[in-house]
Write a structure and sequence with these properties.
The protein is mostly beta strands. The protein has strands at 9-11, 18-23, 32-37, 43-46, 52-55, 63-68, 74-79, 83-88, 94-99, 104-109, 115-120, 124-129, 138-141, 147-153, 158-163, 167-171, 178-183, 188-193, 199-204, 207-212, 218-223, 228-233, 239-244, 248-253, 259-264, 270-275, 281-286, 291-295, 322-324. GO terms for molecular function: kinase activity; RNA binding.
Length: 325
Amino acid sequence: MSSFKQTPLTCSGHTRPVVHLDFSDITDYGYFLMSACKDGKPMLRQGDTGDWIGTFEGHKGAVWGVALNKEATVAASGAADFEAKIWDAKTGGEVQSFQHKHIVKSVNFSKDSIFLATGSNEKLLRIFDLNKSNEAVTTFTGHSSGIKHVMFFQNDRRIISCADDKTVRIWDPLSGQEIHKMEFNAIPTSLEVSRDESIVTIAHGNCVSFWNADSLSKVNEVTVPTLVNTASLHRDKSMFVCGGEDLKMYKIDYNTGKEIESFKGHFGPVHCVRFSPDGELYASGSEDGTLRLWQTTIGKTYGLWKCVDKVSSPQDLLQQEITAI
C-alpha cells in the first residue's frame, strides 16, 4: 500500500449519472477525454487535467455511449433519442446523424475514422460509412437482447460486442456474419480491447476476465469483492482497475489477483473506468454525476498533481480534493 494519499481530480459539470467515457490517443496537444451522461450532453475535456473544453449539444435524450477517434478530431455519441451523432471535436458542431429504431447504447470508430459501428437496443449492430449515405453498409443480427458495447477489433478485421443476452460475440465486418460466441453466467457489463489489441478485458458479475485476442482463450480471471460494472487493463499489463456497486475503485495486480489499493471517492456506483493512453491515470464515471481522475502512481508529479504530501498525521487525512472544472 502506498504511503501517499490518493487525491482524485473531480470533474464537475454533468447533472446526471456518467455512464461511459473514452480517451483519444496522445496527440500534438496532449490527449483528450469524452464522457457520456444521462443529461444528454456529452463533454470533451483535456485528458490529463480534466479541464472542460466543450459540450456537444443536440441530443434529446440520455447519452449512453461516446467515442473519440485517435487524433481527437472527430467524436461520436449514441443516445436514447434513437440517434448516433458525429461531431467535429474542434468546433463542437454536429456533422452527421444516423437514425435508429431504439436506444443507441454504443458507438466506436474504425482506426482510419472512416467507419462507425453502433450497437442498440434493437439487438442489432450496424456499420456506417461516414463518407457515404446515412444508411448502414452492414447490419449484424444474432444477439437476442439489447447490445451494451461494440468495438472494432483486430485491426478493423473484426467487430466485438457484448449484450444483455450474456454473450460476447465476434463478427466479420464485411459479411455481417457471426464467427465466434462466448457465453457467460452474468451479463458482461464492460468490454475493453487493449491498445496493442492483444487482450480483451470483460467485466461480468463479480469477476474480471482476460482473453487472448487472437485465440479467444481465457488467460486470466479475478474475483472482485463487489458486482463489477467496469474494468480497464494498464498498458503494461501489470495491473487493472475496476469499479462497481460498492462505490469503490479497485487497483488489482494482474498476475496475482491481489488488491493493491482501493479508494472510495464516488458517492454512487461506478459505471465506467479507463486508463489514459500513457497509463499515468485512470478516469471513472459514476451515478453521482462526476468524472474523477486517479493517479496510477500516487504522489508522482503529473498534470495537476504537483504537490502530494505523505500521510503522517490525522490532519493529512483532511486534505481536500483538487477540483477540475
